[in-house]
Amino acid sequence: MSRQNPQKARPAPHIILDYRIYHYHKVSSTNKVAKKIAKSSDEEKVVILAETQTHGKGRLGRQWFSPNGGLWLSLMLRPQITLREASKLTLIASCAVARTIDLMFGLKTDVKWPNDVLVNGKKICGILTETGTKDGSVEFVIVGVGINANIDMKSFPEGLQDTATSLKHELGFEINRKKLVKNFLQSFDQRYRRLQVGLWSVLLQEWKNLAIFLGRRVEVKSFDEVLVGKALDIDEDGGLIIRLENGVLRKVIAGDVTLQKKV
Ligand code: BT5
What are the distances in angstroms from CA 226 to CA 75, 239, 244, 250, 254? Predict the structure, then answer.
């Protein structure tokens, strides 16, 4: 993959479909760079790609480990959606990553609500969707996608050794990241276009088909609450519906899901 040196001005873009891709050597966070562009221009379908991030972000202020060899990118889009619908972009991006990994490498992938793609039960990709609003309407959406591509297991911090994996580790060889970007963008764009023409229910069904935790007993940490119950469904807004042990149904809009062993 060709590299751009760090520089203040934007590097020359590569074009894939109608996305303009700006490839940086090192940034703090691709989401942060994409957000700056969103706020200072009326461009859209901009992709910020970086070889490494010094302050890669997860949800809720968590850190995202982003060494060389991974695929760290953010899509900046201006969809006609409400704030409540922004999570739909996380779900379609997860499907696009899962299908791309499956088609390119034959690896079986699962998705975990709300923003993970797993291989062999371990996190290979995380997605961070952020929105910018003006007068209550969505002005832009940043979909940040981190895929552990050519990363050696031994380079992951100790805390991630048991929960994370990489394509290199699963396959035993280094993959072509340029092809991965291209295939992911094609896959994402196909779904993004379907979303824009009202095919959300088809897209949601695709995501559900990849979600192995549905129908299983889960623990959900949501804000200050810990809920245990059966993960029943994902509703039209992308919220998780669980049936608690006392039979009560609850909808969760944000949180972390862990599969429980006992049924
Ligand atoms: C996420 O958050 O999974 C969202 C990750 C989004 C990263 C992309 S990279 C490009 C773009 N630019 C950014 O700055 N971010 C996006 P969350 O569900 O909160 O998970 C975060 C947790 O995952 C951390 O607290 C760690 O436990 C774990 N983690 C950190 N780095 C990881 C990695 N490389 N692989 C797997 N797990 C990781």
Answer: 32, 16, 11, 12, 12
- Does the pTM surpass 0.90? The reply is yes
**Which residues are CB-neighbours of 55 under 8 A, at least 6 positions away?**
28, 29, 32, 63
Q: Which atom of ligand 1 is nearest to the CA of 28?
A: 14
CA 155 to ligand 1 center in whole angstroms: 15
36: its two tokens: 């700056």
Q: How many CB atoms lie within 10 A of CB 250?
A: 16
Per-residue pLDDT tens for 27-54? Answer: 999 999 999 999 999 999 999 999 999 9
Is 21 a pocket residue for ligand 1 (Cβ < 6 Å)? no
126 CB near ligand 1 (under 6 Å)? yes
List pLDDT tens digits, range 58-93.
Answer: 999 999 999 999 999 999 999 999 998 999 999 999
